[in-house]
Amino acid sequence: QKPHGNPKRDSNVRFHPLGLLKRSDEEIAVYDAVLARFGESTEAALREQVAMAFVSKGSRLESLNRSEEAVAAYNEVVRRFGDSRDDELQEIVNRAAEKRKALTGK
């Protein structure tokens, strides 16, 4: 069964308000649900959403001073999508690598 709607647009509607409402645990749970449901997708739009879910989860973990977990999320983006030839996906990979470097110096 294919998801309905625009996953790029819809995810922003669902994810970010939880963080704004100081509901970080729920926000992280939503990212985890997206990753569990779509993490192995080969569809380009969903792969971008998975990569963004990892980056957004990492950012939220960072804001909670959970740096090791944040680095793990960023590493997962680079590991899964680093070889992609898709320009939009590579932008997300680069963002994850930059965020990781800011935390680790590597």
How is this fold's topology laid out?
Elements: H1 7-20, H2 24-38, H3 44-63, H4 67-81, H5 87-104
Helix pairs in contact: 1-2, 1-3, 2-3, 3-4, 3-5, 4-5
Explain this structure to me?
- It is a single chain.
- This protein is mostly helical.
- The protein has 5 helices and no strands.
Which percent bin holds the helix content? over 70%
Mean pLDDT: 84
Number of strands: 0
Element-by-element helix/strand order: HHHHH
* Shape call: flat
User: What portion of residues belong to β-strands?
Assistant: under 5%
Task: Give the radius of gyration.
Answer: 13 Å
Report the oligomer: single chain
Major sheet summary line: none
| Residue windows where pLDDT falls under 50 for at least 5 positions | 1-15
Essential attributes:
77% helix, flat, single chain, 106 residues, mainly alpha, disordered N terminus
Write a brief structural summary:
The protein has about 110 residues and is an all-alpha fold. About 75% of the residues lie in helices and about 0% in strands. It has helices at about 5-20, 25-40, 45-65, 65-80, 85-105.
